[in-house]
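We now fix the convention by which a protein and its fold are recorded. Think of the row as the fold of the chain written in a discrete alphabet. Here is one such record, which you should read through line by line.
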Amino acid sequence: MRVELTPTKVRRIVQENTEICVQDVYLLGAGFDFETYLVNDEWVFRFPNTPSEADALVNENHVLNGLSIPTTTPVYEHWLSRPTGYPMPVAGYRVIRGECMEALDPDSCDTIQLAKDLAKTLQSLHGACVNHKRHTVNLDDFSSKEVVGSFDPVTVGLTTKEQSTAIQFVEQYRNNNKKIRSTRIHGDLGVEHIITKASRYLVGVIDWSNATIGNRFKDFIGLWGWGGDHFVQEVLSHYQDRPQHIDWAFIRVHGLMYCVHRLKLAVLHNHNYSSILCNRLRKRIKETRGMSPSDLP
């Protein structure tokens, strides 16, 4: 069952379980899985909403302790396994300074440098092969009902034509199996989890609670949602593997659904960048018009 949090309650929990003298508490983000708060403009505290997400937080801590990649990742200096005032583990790390990539306009960024940095980080992460044998994975599909529900034009602000184009594109995607090489992946590499500097350099990657072993191209979904085929190709130009037809279909379709998910979440919480995400979704839909998901760029 989800536990309701407020800045006042977070202040009390942090003060009772750490040595921090809490002055300010600010809600950074509220998702379906975690609520994240900034304390004293210095510490980021993550609160899981459910027991399953508490397990994910434990997994994240384990992953981060063994991770070695060429960018900054959270270091949990405060690990509260049984905190007073909260029924699940809570973790806190020093804030990673920079700009959230989600808020940036690709047309105003040095995407060439950013792509190089991201490729270097992904190459390092994905290079950690856990099992060199290939195994078959289900790359998912979407039912018509799921697609129509997700693209509710009233919810996300699409025109009827845009909704129709998106649904037609996604419905071309079919359940596919593919033999892949197991690699460590972030698992939820949306641009909301990427920190940049000066709209040019990669500074850090956060939120590793979904880190797992799986399809490396899952870590390109959010990048496609942000910059489409063009930006993904820029990253891939510095990355050793090249996606095949089935991989491009996976990246694009999941990328489109990712854009919808982020927009719906922004609308739900009345975020001031909802219009940015809506325009980004419209741009991705426009780019897919007349295209098959599996077309090579």
User: Anything to note?
Assistant: The domain at 100-288 is CATH 3.90.1200.10 (Aminoglycoside 3'-phosphotransferase; Chain: A, domain 2). The chain has a mean pLDDT of 90.
